[in-house]
From TrEMBL:
UniProt GO cellular component terms: cytosol
Gene giving rise to this polypeptide: glmS
Cytoplasm listed as a keyword: yes
Swiss-Prot/TrEMBL keywords: Aminotransferase, Cytoplasm, Glutamine amidotransferase, Repeat, Transferase
Reactions mediated catalytically: D-fructose 6-phosphate + L-glutamine = D-glucosamine 6-phosphate + L-glutamate
Originating species: Bradyrhizobium septentrionale
KW Repeat (keyword) present: yes
GO MF annotation list: carbohydrate derivative binding; glutamine-fructose-6-phosphate transaminase (isomerizing) activity
Official protein name in the record: Glutamine--fructose-6-phosphate aminotransferase [isomerizing]
GO biological process assignments: carbohydrate metabolic process; fructose 6-phosphate metabolic process; protein N-linked glycosylation; UDP-N-acetylglucosamine metabolic process
Sequence ranges assigned to domain SIS in this UniProt record: 44-183, 216-358
Subcellular location as annotated: Cytoplasm
EC number: 2.6.1.16
């Protein structure tokens, strides 16, 4: 085989551990480290100043990368973003205007629904930009602009490194958009790029949580259901965490916006339902702490991923904290993806499932 597992038990483990390196390669393609500026490797055939709205379309994990990007583009470039899964977008025939920007995200570049959505957007006269990992793929060939992720071949069916590389490209794109639209100053740009440059190192640090996560996975493996909560960009990451867990461990999991807890899912909480809370220290952190108190009061066991050590422990018992490296909150999902993936991976290993080739799933879904 061209690609082997090196010393890892599964491709997925290897691919999780490769992330600091491949995210670093991707970073080097989209930012100029010396000047701390973003620099797109290709000239964009449109000016972000002229774009009034963006639509982002993808499937599965790639759609969660798109969901994170929505937060970034709206915050950094003040551009409204509509996000769809491709199977809905294509049949909904979403209204696109000539000159709108339609972004497609796909590891394989062959996903049937995403390809159909791309063809539809083209037929409407939209600019099409794809974030793909396979540059020779159909989606890459048919897109007006291709921004490649440099994840290298991803063999595990559960997407890991492709996801974080997609996030890196989309983060750079959001900074470029903010700059072009005059929403970000040179100083803002330098600060943000600096934040991106730190990410590979922070991801390496995040990998050191693995020993602790392996132990937690033994507990998780006894559960029937797991709830993932997050606010802001941690919300799409909660969705991704739940997807990852269900696809490889077959444990039912759901991701929810933490603020939605009271609107339904809180009814499920008891001592048998672990709740994974993704909460980097940001301006909504305290809100998430009160959600955790609500969970704890109902006997729910919490696994908290945060860099705000001690801030929640004071008021909440039955809490295990996975301590994350200190970092600014903007790009936190790229780093927090690591413990989220490790938790799913180790749970699946405990369960004894076929981690790299989970039942019923294909690496690339080329039929509807
Ligand atoms: C992720 O773990 C999945 N197996 C799946 O959701 C995947 O992300 C989706 O099928 C999209 O694939 P693509 O990125 O190749 O288009």
């Amino acid at each position: 085989a061209l690609v082997d597992k090196a010393n890892y038990r599964h491709f997925m483990a290897k691919e999780i551990h490769e992330q600091p390196e491949v995210v670093g390669h991707t970073l080097a393609r989209y930012v100029d480290m010396a000047t701390e500026r973003v620099s797109m490797p290709v000239k964009l055939p449109f000016d972000f100043k002229d774009i009034q709205r963006i639509s982002i379309t993808a499937c599965g994990t790639a759609s969660y990368a798109g969901f994170v990007a929505k937060y970034w583009l709206e915050k950094l470039a003040r551009l409204p973003v509509e996000l769809d899964v491709a199977s809905e977008f294509r049949y909904r025939e979403a209204p696109l205007r000539k000159g709108d920007l339609a972004i497609f995200i796909s590891q394989s570049g062959e996903t049937a629904d995403t390809l159909a959505a791309l063809r539809y957007a083209k037929s409407q006269g939209a600019h099409t930009l794809s974030v793909v990992n396979v540059p020779t793929s159909t989606i890459a060939r048919e897109s007006e602009t291709v921004l490649q992720t440099l994840a290298g071949p991803e063999i595990g069916v559960a997407s890991t490194k492709a996801f974080t590389c997609q996030l890196m490209v989309l983060a750079s794109l959001a900074v470029a958009a903010g700059k072009a639209r005059g929403e970000l100053s040179d100083a803002d740009e330098a600060k943000l790029v600096h934040g991106l440059v730190e990410i590979p190192r922070l991801m390496s640090e995040a990998l050191t949580t693995e020993v602790q996560i392996e132990k937690l996975a033994r507990e998780i493996s006894k559960s029937r259901d797991v709830l993932y909560l997050g606010r802001g960009t941690s919300y799409p990451l909660a969705l991704e965490g739940a997807l990852k867990l269900k696809e490889i461990s077959y444990i039912h999991a759901e991701g929810y916006a933490a603020g939605e807890l009271k609107h339904g899912p809180i009814a499920l909480i008891d001592e048998h339902m672990p709740v994974v809370v993704i909460a980097p220290y940001d301006k909504v952190f305290e809100k998430t702490v009160s959600n955790m108190q609500e969970v704890a009061a109902r006997g729910g066991k919490i696994i908290l991923m945060t860099d705000a050590k001690g801030a929640a422990e004071a008021t909440i018992q039955s809490l295990v904290t996975i301590v994350m490296p200190d970092m600014g909150a903007t790009f936190a999902p790229i780093v927090y993806a690591v413990p989220v993936q490790l938790l799913a991976y180790h749970t699946a290993v405990v369960m004894g499932t076929d981690v790299d080739q989970p039942r019923n799933l294909a690496k690339s879904v080329t039929v509807e």
